[in-house]
Amino acid sequence: MLIDHFPVYGIRVRTPRLELRLPAPEELAELAELAMDGIHGPDLMPFGTPWSELPPADRARRVMQRHWRTLAELKADAWALNLVVFLDGRPVGVQEIEADDFAIQRQVTSESWLGLRHQGRGIGTEMRAAMLHLAFAGLGADEAVSVGYMDNHASLRVSRKLGYAENGTSRGISRGKLALEQRFRLSREAWEQHRTVEATIEGLEPCLPLLGAEAAA
């Protein structure tokens, strides 16, 4: 079976409303179609690479290609999991968790997107909380970091709500122009103090060597 050779397909992170996991092929196609319907309004660009402004068909293909690429490149010292977020069994977005040299640094970063029609319901906060539970409770991370453009108020609100502390600013590029970024850091202690979303993890233990997290088991 696929899971015997690539056990990350068995990871399940569940919260009261959501399930985060890797998708089956037809679920990935449904996720791509969700991206075709839009991810943000025209006045916002939350990504350094403006893939979300591609024509709908190209946008859908990009979602699928990124998913396959991150799986193909997964190795213990550099990995990313594009976990699809399911609500009532249907994909509503992506919550990515990634790390370099996790066995040494014990640090994760994250990116995410949520289908436009599912925004404004607290799903973004809940799916980030699920990712943090996977990082800290599951993998034994020491800290999580996040970066958001200053005008991406929804993302910055999620970070602050979940206990991230501001950790300086940096200069990025958005749509070919200078865009200031707010950097955040969340320690294990701050995560424990601010966690309010109940979460469970299933199928992680066989994946620990693949993610450089054996010592955290």
Report on the structure:
By secondary structure, the protein is α+β, with helices and mostly antiparallel strands. It has a domain of 150 residues: Aminopeptidase. It is 32% helix and 31% strand. It contains 7 helices and 9 strands. The chain has a 9-stranded mixed beta sheet, sandwiched between helices. Strand 5, helix 5 and strand 6 form a beta-alpha-beta unit. The mean pLDDT is 92. InterPro entries: Acyl_CoA_acyltransferase, GNAT_dom, Ribosomal_N-acetyltransferase. Keywords: Transferase. One of its GO terms (molecular function) is protein-N-terminal-alanine acetyltransferase activity.
List keywords for this structure.
7 helices, 217 residues, Aminopeptidase, alpha+beta, single chain
Kindly report the name of the CATH homologous superfamily of the domain at 2-131 and 197-216: Gcn5-related N-acetyltransferase (GNAT)
Largest sheet: 9 strands, mixed
Query: Can you tell me the overall shape?
Result: globular
Strand order of the largest sheet: 7-8-6-5-4-3-2-1-9
Q: What is the helix/strand order?
A: HEEHHEEHEHEHEEHE
Question: Radius of gyration, Cα only, in angstroms?
Answer: 16 Å
User: What is the first-to-last residue Cα distance?
Assistant: 24 Å
Round the mean pLDDT to the nearest integer and report it.
92
Determine the fraction of residues in helical runs and give it as a percent range.
Answer: 25-40%
- Percent strand equals 25-35%
User: If helices are DSSP runs of H or I spanning 4 or more residues, what is the number of helices?
Assistant: 7
Question: Using DSSP, what is the number of strands?
Answer: 9
Classify the secondary structure makeup into a structural class.
alpha+beta
CATH class of the domain at 2-131 and 197-216: Alpha Beta
* CATH architecture group name of the domain at 2-131 and 197-216: 3-Layer(aba) Sandwich
What name is given to the CATH topology of the domain at 2-131 and 197-216?
Answer: Aminopeptidase
